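Holo model, S-adenosyl-L-homocysteine. Inputs:
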Amino acid sequence: MSRIAVLIVVLAVAGADAWAGPDRYVEARRAMVETQIKARGVRDERVLRAMLTVPRHRFVPERHLRQAYNDHPLPIGFGQTISQPYIVALMSEEAAVRPGQRVLEIGTGSGYQAAILAELTDHDRVYTVEIIEPLAQSAARGLRELGYGKVRTRTGDGYLGWPQAAPFDAILVTAAPDHVPPPLVQQLKEGGRMVVPVGPPGLVQTLWRITKEGGQLKFHSLGAVMFVPLVRR
Ligand code: SAH
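Output:
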């Protein structure tokens, strides 16, 4: 190929990439919602809209950018992962977060699930706890940059919840404990919902939706999942 031809090819590729930028991700989110999320039965319009709105690629490390909207979790460093899109949507739907409600997330990770929750209630009613300090900091920075700066982030052991901000209408646990943490049960409002994977570390866990009714807990299984373990300090 002549030098001019090579130059033209390079310009065409670079140009196409620049032009396709934002649109490519809009289309990627639309496809993600259709083929991964609606197709598996998530119906809540507000959740679907949140999944269309939040730029998931901004919560994914640069080297995995091209896989940001794929149907699987991705590494975010420190041995941790951003959950599969469908799991984020399912947990959000099961938590049934309504505007004005107070919600706690355990395991901030990338901050992506927290941003989805912020689309479902007031930003400043979303509380999220992460045990790995650098992850907590980069998630907080990412949330700020994307306009979710009012989400309340904290470094600490999420097993203990966030007692100062309790009680919560909904609690989402995005790392797997081997039993339901009693402090989280305590911090759940009467009529509130907790979505939590419970099971042995490194193996398959059961994802539970737990509701508190009349001081009693009702368990509903949402199926088998694989989460990173909830670790203790
Ligand atoms: N919700 C995240 C993904 C979570 S991965 C997202 O949207 O990207 C699970 C996270 O839980 C990891 O970042 C891990 O460090 C964190 N974690 C594990 N044990 C924890 C604990 N006891 N308290 C708070 N966070 C914990």
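Confidence is low (pLDDT under 50) at residues 7-20. Residues 131 and 156 are 5 Å apart (CA to CA).
Archived with the compound record.
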